[in-house]
Amino acid sequence: MTAPRIEAISFGTYYCAAYRCDGAPDILLDGADGRPERFTSATAAIKAAELALHFKPAIPADEDILGARQFHEIRAAAEAALQIEALGGVVVDGRVVPVEVRRR
Prior knowledge:
104 residues, alpha+beta, two-stranded antiparallel ribbon, 2 helices, rod-shaped
């Protein structure tokens, strides 16, 4: 995919910044309210779009790349099963709750 071109589109008295790629629809630079951001000049619109494009991550990061969350869930389930096997469990509201032994 080619890099997007940045252009300013005139809407009467204001300008909006647009990202354009070949064969894809234009993407307007949105403000905090989700509507296209308005600029008083074309230069200001292009500079804001370049700045936004510079700080935009190219690939969204996966929140659990190494699989740590899945590992901890499996380990916690295995430890709970071992605890129920070793010490037994009590049925509370249809669930088996492991018995805990505490030393004083």
